[in-house]
Please model this.
Amino acid sequence: MSIARVTEIICGSDKSFKDAIENGIERANKTLKNVEGAWVKDQSVILDKGKIREYRVVLKVTFVLDD
Model:
């Protein structure tokens, strides 16, 4: 029987929400083993003088623990 853990990460991009998600998954894979999935918990933007400076997402990343 496998045991999984879920961890929350915040990631950003100056291009798009999609890019922010891809950045977060790429970074999670560098640190966590056996990443199995992720879901977007929240999205937000950071503004600078009324213009979008950064797209941010909060991801819940699921990874399976080693035996």
User: Anything to note?
Assistant: DSSP finds one helix and three strands in the chain.
